[in-house]
Amino acid sequence: MTNLNDREKAFENRFARDAELQFKVTARRNRLLGNWAAEKLGLTTAEAEAYAREVVAADFEEAGDDDVFRKVYGDLTAKGVEVSEHEVRRAMEEKLVEARRQFIEEV
Predict the structure, then answer these.
(1) Distance linking the first and last C-alpha atoms of the chain
(2) Buried b / exposed e across 60-88, counting CB within 10 Å, b at 16+?
(3) Which of 57, 48, 90, 61 minimizes the C-alpha distance to 73?
(4) DSSP string, the chain
(5) Contact call for residues 99 and 34 (beta carbons, < 8 A)
(6) Distance between CA 99 and CA 18 in Å, rounded?
(7) 10 Å Cβ neighbour count for 21?
(8) pLDDT tens-digit map of 23-47
(9) Alpha carbon 41 to chain centroid distance?
């Protein structure tokens, strides 16, 4: 019985670590995406850092990536930046890969 409990606890611990890692990777993706958008918006370094934090915070509005997409795409189009929805979504995918790579390199 102890062996089964140990396996269950190990599974729960692994699930918690995986969920935490995914959260961190997504937050880093959002920060990288914010920096990408800030460059397109022509923001200063300080403004870009603040904007990247806003993009990270936007992810807490609802589940999934739509809240982040709406924030970035909306801000870009509001400032007259020529960008398509596809381009923003592609940047989100590319920044997710970059964020994962950064975490792998850190380990």
Answers:
(1) 35
(2) eeeeebebbbebbbebbeeeeeebeeeeb
(3) 90
(4) -HHHHHHHHHHHHHHHHHHHHHHHHHHHHHHHHHHHHHHHHT--HHHHHHHHHHHHHHTTSSSSSHHHHHHHHHHHHHTT----HHHHHHHHHHHHHHHHHHHHHH-
(5) no
(6) 15
(7) 13
(8) 999 999 999 999 999 999 999 999 9
(9) 19
Cα gap 27→57, rounded to integer Å: 9
Amino acid at 12: E
Indicate whether 107 pLDDT > 80: no
Q: Identify whether the C-beta of residue 21 lies closer than 8 Å to the C-beta of residue 84.
A: no
Q: Which residues lie closer than 8 Å to 98 by C-beta, 6 or more apart?
A: 29, 32
Q: Are 55 and 35 in contact (CB under 8 A)?
A: no
Amino acid (1-letter code) at residue 54:
E
Q: Please give the pLDDT value at position 1.
A: 63
Task: For residue 96, give the amino acid letter.
Answer: L
